[in-house]
Structures are given as structure tokens and as C-alpha cells.
Write a structure and sequence with these properties.
The complex is a heterodimer of chains A (about 300) and B (about 280).
Chain A lengths: L2 E3 L2 E4 L11 E6 L5 H8 L11 E2 L2 E2 L11 E4 L11 H11 L6 H9 L15 H13 L5 E5 L7 H18 L2 E6 L2 H7 L2 E6 L2 E7 H7 L1 E7 L3 H10 L4 E3 L4 E4 L2 H4 L2 H10 L6 E7 L1 H8 L7
Parallel strand pairs in A: 3-8, 3-9, 6-7, 7-8
Antiparallel strand pairs in A: 1-2, 4-5, 9-10, 11-13, 11-14, 12-13
Helix pairs in contact in A: 2-3
Chain B lengths: L10 H17 L2 H25 L1 H7 L1 H10 L4 H33 L13 H34 L6 H20 L2 H9 L4 H19 L10 H6 L1 H6 L8 H24 L4
Helix pairs in contact in B: 1-6, 2-4, 2-5, 2-6, 3-4, 5-6, 5-7, 5-8, 5-9, 6-7, 6-12, 8-9, 8-12
The chains are: A alpha/beta (about 300), B mainly alpha (about 280).
Chain lengths: ~300, ~280
């Protein structure tokens, strides 16, 4: 898919394929093109190039039956402020053609909104507005859930609750979930596959098995004479490089698991380390490096 | 869990569902009561003019107000009361009905609830149609409210020249004037949709009102659709005291063309425009 607004390229040549039952984490910084992509998936904006197909149906204007199988939440969810939580859900129930009136009560319970069911939407906390948005997306038991930043505004307990709910929907009921986020740890905990989007392009895609591999370790060694220490390490067959004036970074997996051997080697050579620490280069760092940003030390 | 949920189709069922939804939104809004109060106020003010006209002594004591009432109504009786309400409604109706159309469409953008309406098994055209129907029903309900209030006020004032013909003729004229004003308000709904909010559309209502006055003053009102309700009701004549340009089939055709074009355009816009 490609989408341009004048000279601004919002999404460029972005290609995604999401398998049934998958939880796909769509990761990107603010303004990376996540919401534009989601709106194209939902037929709210038309791509300038490419096409969207859901369950084998090409998405085009006037499409409606396919949406019966899709639940969605775009950006911060908004509801009719003067209507209660229950009335807002009634509206969605009717527009989705759901004849069973109990669906509203069920989803209220599922999203822990029972206490606020008769409150007007404008009086809800940000977290509960988010729950109402999720309730609207889930009311019809969709086969595919497209969620834009679902954890946004929720407190830690709420985040865990929603994570468990989404996990349960995917694993127990086979619901396919496409969720965007700019919080890597959130995506990391739930997604079975992650796509990293940056400046409208998909820069990397990896599945859960690869996640652990991306979580790199490195052994940081501070010594008074880095040049001499590097020669000693190289002579011992250890791949190392100077990180800054006083530090050496070792990324070799086997070595990072045995820092004591590096310490012994340097002490015996007469260059005892002044600091020896194993750092975990996590997904956050990986993500930032993929999008060309550096972490502040 | 997924497969047991039944969705029921059918355009009629879908339209009724969309109508109920729009009705629910309107019922809970303050705008409903504000427009009802505005029309009630108009009726009561017209009743006040009748009251002043009925008692010339009091009219003279009130000075300017009495003089103005003389211009509008002439004599204090049922036909004059209907004429006065009709004249005010032909102009005020365009504003208030216009505001109803703008609110029904513009609120979805103002409240950012529009995204909930775009990817549903209910088509966007059904939702737009339901909105227009509800705007019409709301406007007709306001006309009926004015009519009932007129009957009450007129009875209290014990206005002369009551007859079933006068009353039904008056109601018929109110409904026709209102209907012309209503169809001319659909473009305001289009403006509210395209500009994604209320303000530009409200500005558009007032701009059109001014243009309507200009066209009427220049004697070309019959070719400017938004002048037609005023010309039909006799508002221009009542305001200037001079015979206004008569409206003919061309005027009604232009009103029809404006309404059809705006309905088609608003449907196309909702169906195809990017919803960013």
C-alpha cells in the first residue's frame, strides 16, 4: 500500500500478510504511518497504490458485509458524550445488525464496565473510554480485530487485563489480531509476529521465535589501556571492539555467558578490568537502531 | 463463540436500525430542546404582535413595537396570525432547520464518532439516509409544535375569523414552506461533512441568508433557490410592503435540482472521500 498527501508520503510500498490466528504487532514511532495503514485496512481511506484484502475480499468503497467479521478501534476511541456506556453500545449493536440484546450486557461484563454502564460517556476516565472503545470493537465476536494502540491510557492493571483478554481471544477463539503500538514492551508481550514501521515503510518483520534472538547481550569491560586489552582479547580469539575511550564491548554470545574468563585473561595479562558488566541490549535498543535513532547513554 | 453470533440483513431492517440509532442520538441531545424553544419563542412573539394589534391603545403606548406589528400583520385575526408566523418561519426556518442538518452531520466529526460509522455491515449510504430522514422528521415536528402553540395562543387571544379552511390552509402553507426550506438545508449537511464540523456550515447558512436577501432585493429571487421559501410565504412582500417577484416552475425546479445534487453529492462524499 502507498498513501500520499501532496508531497507527504504517509505510507510507501508497505506490504503486510497476516495469517489467521496470528497476533500481529505493528510497531512504530508516532507519525510512522501506523494509523494511516489501519485506516487503509478499514477502508476509511483509499490507498494511492496497492490493495487491501481481508479474508480474501478486496476492500473497496461500499463494502459492508466483510465488516461484520471485523472489529476495530482507530486512535483514541470516542463515543457519544451525552449517551451512557450502555446506550453507546446499543448503537453499535443495532448498526452491526445484532439481534441478541444480551450482547451489550455480555460485553459490558467482559470489559469490566458494569459499574459504569449507566454513566454518560463524557464522564468516563480515559481508561474506561478506552475500554468502551474495545467493547465496541468486540461486541460482535469478530474474527479479525484491528486495534490502534489498545493499551493507550490504561493503568498497569488494565493493561494486563486487556492483554489477557486479547491473548485469550487469539488462543482460545482463534481471533486474528492486528494491533499497533509505539510501546515495544507491550507488543513484545503479546504479539506472535512484529512488523516495524518507520517513515511509512516496513523496515523489519520478525516472528516470536526470533524475538529472543533479537534480545542481545553484550559484555562491557572497562580497562585503563583499551588498545592493549583489545590486542590480548583478539589474540585469545574473542571478538571485541572499543565502545569508547575506556570501554570494550564484547558481543560474542559464548563469551558474554562467561565474563569470569575475560576477567581472568585480562588480570593474567596485567590489565585488570576496572568494571565488568553484562548488558542486555533489548528490543527497545534494537528497534531504535532499526529506525536510525540512538539511545541516550 | 465466533460463529454463533447471527447478523440479520435486509435493507429495510438496516434502515430501521439506522433510524432508531439516529433517533436515540437526537433524543438525548440538548439541541432538540434548543430548537423547540427557538420555534416556541417565535410563535409567542408572533402572538404578542397579535395581542398588540388587537388593542390599538396598547399598541400606541408601546410605540415602535406597535408600528412594526402593523407592518407585519395588519389586523389581529387568524389569517394574519398565520401569515405572520409563516413569514418569520420562512426565514427563521432556514436558520433553525439548517442548524438541525448541520448538527446531525457535523456532530459526528465534532465528537469524532464518525469512525464508528464507517466500517460496519450497515452501509454508509443507509446511515446518511437515516440522518436526512431524522432531520426532516425533527423539522416537521417543530412545524407541528408551532402549529399547536399557535392554536393555543390564538385561542387565548380569542382572535376573530376562525375557520377550518383558514387553519388547514395555514398549516398546509407552513408545511410546504418548511419542506422547501428543509430540502434547501441538505447542502449545509454536505458542508458540515466536507469541512468535518459545525462552524463553516453555520457560516454558510448565514451567508446564504444574506445572498437570498440580495437576490430578492435585486428582483432575481425566483432564480436563487434559498429565496424561494421567503417568496412562497410572502415574506419579501410583507417586509418591503411591495409586491415581490412571483415564483414559477423554474424556481421549484431549481429547488429540486439543489436538493437532488446535494443528496447525491453527500452520498458520494461519505462513500468515497478519505476519512482522515
Amino acid at each position: 500500500m502507498t498513501k500520499r498527501y501532496g508531497d507527504l508520503v504517509a505510507v510507501e510500498g508497505l506490504s503486510l500478510n497476516i495469517e489467521p490466528g496470528e497476533i500481529y504487532g505493528f510497531l512504530g514511532l508516532n507519525g510512522a504511518g501506523k494509523t494511516t495503514t489501519i485506516r487503509m485496512l478499514l477502508g476509511m481511506i483509499r490507498p494511492d497504490g496497492g490493495l487491501v484484502s481481508i479474508f480474501g475480499t478486496k476492500i473497496k468503497p461500499g463494502q459492508r458485509l466483510i465488516w461484520g467479521r471485523v472489529g476495530y478501534m482507530v486512535e483514541t476511541p470516542h463515543s457519544y458524550p451525552d449517551l451512557t456506556v450502555r446506550e453507546n453500545l446499543e448503537i453499535i449493536r443495532r448498526l452491526r445488525g445484532l439481534s441478541d440484546t444480551k450482547t451489550v450486557e455480555r460485553v459490558i461484563e467482559e470489559l469490566s464496565l458494569t459499574r459504569d454502564a449507566d454513566k454518560r460517556a463524557k464522564t468516563l476516565s480515559h481508561g474506561n473510554s478506552q475500554r468502551l472503545g474495545l467493547a465496541k470493537a468486540l461486541i460482535h465476536h469478530p474474527d479479525l480485530l484491528i486495534l490502534d494502540e489498545p493499551a493507550n491510557g490504561l493503568d498497569p492493571a488494565g493493561i494486563v487485563e486487556i492483554r489477557n483478554l486479547l491473548h485469550d481471544l487469539a488462543t482460545e477463539h482463534g481471533v486474528t489480531i492486528f494491533m499497533s503500538s509505539h510501546i515495544l514492551s507491550e507488543v513484545n508481550r503479546l504479539a506472535t509476529r512484529i512488523g516495524v514501521v518507520h517513515r511509512g515503510q516496513l523496515v523489519k518483520e520478525f516472528d516470536s521465535a526470533e524475538l529472543a534472538e533479537q534480545e542481545q547481550r553484550r559484555l562491557m569491560v572497562d580497562v585503563k589501556d583499551t588498545a592493549a586489552a583489545l590486542t590480548i582479547l583478539e589474540n585469545a580469539g574473542i571478538l571485541a571492539q572499543a565502545d569508547n575511550k575506556d570501554s570494550i564491548a564484547i558481543t560474542d554470545i559464548v563469551t558474554t555467558q562467561h565474563p569470569e574468563e575475560v576477567a581472568t585473561l585480562l588480570v593474567r595479562a596485567g590489565y585488570p578490568p576496572t568494571r565488568l558488566v553484562v548488558e542486555r541490549r533489548d528490543l527497545e535498543s534494537y528497534f531504535l537502531s532499526r529506525v536510525g535513532m540512538k539511545e541516550k547513554k | 463463540m465466533i460463529s454463533i453470533v447471527k447478523t440479520s440483513g435486509g435493507i429495510i431492517k438496516e434502515t430501521f436500525a439506522a433510524l432508531r440509532v439516529e433517533m436515540q442520538k437526537v433524543r438525548h441531545s440538548k439541541t432538540l430542546w434548543i430548537t423547540a424553544l427557538a420555534f416556541a419563542f417565535i410563535t409567542i412573539i408572533c402572538g404578542l404582535f397579535m395581542f398588540i394589534l388587537k388593542d390599538p391603545e396598547q399598541a400606541r403606548r408601546l410605540g415602535l413595537l406597535g408600528a412594526k406589528a402593523q407592518i407585519f400583520g395588519g389586523t389581529a385575526d387568524w389569517p394574519s396570525f398565520f401569515t405572520l408566523v409563516l413569514v418569520i418561519m420562512s426565514i427563521g426556518g432556514l436558520v433553525i432547520f439548517g442548524f438541525i442538518f448541520v448538527w446531525i452531520f457535523g456532530r459526528e466529526f465534532g465528537d469524532k464518532t464518525v469512525y464508528d460509522l464507517l466500517s460496519l455491515p450497515t452501509s454508509r449510504i443507509t446511515i446518511v439516509t437515516a440522518k436526512i430522514i431524522i432531520a426532516f422528521c425533527w423539522s416537521v415536528a417543530l412545524i407541528l409544535l408551532v402549529f399547536i402553540l399557535m392554536l393555543v395562543v390564538g385561542a387565548i387571544l380569542q382572535l376573530p375569523n376562525w375557520s377550518a379552511v383558514v387553519v388547514f390552509d395555514g398549516l398546509g402553507q407552513m408545511l410546504v414552506t418548511g419542506l422547501i426550506a428543509m430540502v434547501l438545508c441538505i447542502p449545509f449537511a454536505l458542508v458540515a461533512s466536507v469541512t468535518r464540523g459545525y462552524l463553516p456550515a453555520v457560516g454558510c447558512i448565514f451567508l446564504i441568508l444574506v445572498l437570498g436577501q440580495v437576490f430578492s432585493a435585486l428582483g432575481h429571487g425566483q432564480y436563487f433557490p434559498w429565496s424561494v421559501p421567503g417568496l412562497y410565504s410572502g415574506a419579501a412582500e410583507a417586509l418591503t410592503g411591495e409586491a415581490s417577484t412571483p415564483i414559477g416552475p423554474v424556481s421549484y425546479i431549481l429547488v429540486g435540482v439543489v436538493s437532488v445534487i446535494s443528496i447525491v453529492t453527500i452520498d458520494i462524499w461519505w462513500q468515497y472521500a478519505d476519512q482522515t
